[in-house]
């Protein structure tokens, strides 16, 4: 079932029509009552009933809003023109907001692609695109949006690891654009049948579950220490190599392999050590 335009007319002209009919009906009743003219009184009363019945056809449409019309349970169209409108008085009307709305899901506890328990939450921005599908294809489209969004969030979270172990593999923590795009597509695939368009979906909360948070923190600290030590060693080796090359090129001192090894060992200890070195003065010979 798809949305189509419903029958409606500008309301202001019909306000004038109702006023004229009511004035005519009142005039007939007042004129016919003293003379007890049954026909005049009956026509006047009939016009008053018709006027009162026509008043039921008036309704208002606010900006970014739609009115879904039904005739005895059958979908009769949707009116989106803002202002005072008039339609068939037999139509029933249901107001549907077309404004952009958002909600934040709760913190869901799921397992990531590596099996680690994590906490994740998201903010979803959405709006109704097809009022007929929103009203007639699902029971409660707002509740449907919330439940299906959380279901899509769970599904998405299980497709990626929390941290990337490979530079080319997306992860929940490091590839925000890829994750948000995947989440939006997952939610849209579920909400398409409800006439809802997902404008944006973003991760709002991401953390390890409490039971493994401490262990994962130690793991991250260990990874940071290893990365830092790797950079330090690489830099120290480069500095030692540069020192040996410059000593050899300038002819400052000629070192045999044994003394080169000793010098390399000392320099690496000085450059890679966590604490400041304590110099030792050698007052004797190198041999």
Structural description of this entry:
There is one protein chain. The chain is 48% helix and 22% strand. The protein is α+β, with helices and mostly antiparallel strands and 287 residues long. The longest helix has 41 residues, at 210-250.
Number of helical runs? 7
Query: What's the N-to-C terminus distance?
Result: 96 Å
| Rg measurement, Å | 39 Å
Secondary structural class? alpha+beta
Poorly predicted segments: none
Write the layout of secondary structure elements.
Layout (H helix, E strand, L loop, with lengths): L8 E2 H25 L2 H18 L2 E4 L3 E7 L2 E6 L3 E4 L5 E6 L3 E4 L3 E4 L5 E12 L2 H6 L4 H17 L18 H16 L4 E13 L1 H41 L6 H16 L15
Antiparallel strand pairs: 1-5, 2-5, 3-4, 3-6, 7-9, 8-9, 9-10
How would you summarize what this structure contains?
This protein has 287 residues and is of the alpha+beta class. The protein has 7 helices and 10 strands. Helix 4 crosses helix 5 and helix 6 runs antiparallel to helix 7.
């Amino acid at each position: 079932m798809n949305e189509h335009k419903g029958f409606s007319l500008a309301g202001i002209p019909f306000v004038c029509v109702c006023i004229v009919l009511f004035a005519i009906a009142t005039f007939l009743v007042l004129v016919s009552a003293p003379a007890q003219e049954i026909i005049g009184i009956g026509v006047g009363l009939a016009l008053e009933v018709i006027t009162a019945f026509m008043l039921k056809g008036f309704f208002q449409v606010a900006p970014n809003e739609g009115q879904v019309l039904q005739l005895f349970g059958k979908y009769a169209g949707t009116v989106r023109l803002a202002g005072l409108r008039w339609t068939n008085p037999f139509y029933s009307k249901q107001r549907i907001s077309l404004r952009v709305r958002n909600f934040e899901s709760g913190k869901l506890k799921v397992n990531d692609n590596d099996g680690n328990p994590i906490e994740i939450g998201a903010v979803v921005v959405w709006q109704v695109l097809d009022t007929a599908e929103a009203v007639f294809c699902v029971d409660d489209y707002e509740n449907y949006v919330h439940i299906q969004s959380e279901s899509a969030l769970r599904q998405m979270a299980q497709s990626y690891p929390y941290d990337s172990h490979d530079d080319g593999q997306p992860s929940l923590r490091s590839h925000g654009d890829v994750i948000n795009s995947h989440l939006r597509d997952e939610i849209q695939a579920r909400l398409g049948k409800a006439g809802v368009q997902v404008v944006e979906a973003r991760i709002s909360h991401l953390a390890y579950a409490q039971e493994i948070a401490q262990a994962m923190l130690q793991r991250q600290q260990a990874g940071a220490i290893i990365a830092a030590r790797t950079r330090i060693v690489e830099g120290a080796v480069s500095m030692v190599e540069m020192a040996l090359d410059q000593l050899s090129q300038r002819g400052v001192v000629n070192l045999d392999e044994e003394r080169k090894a000793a010098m390399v060992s000392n320099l690496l200890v000085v450059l890679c050590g966590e604490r400041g070195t304590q110099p030792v003065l050698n007052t004797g010979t190198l041999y």
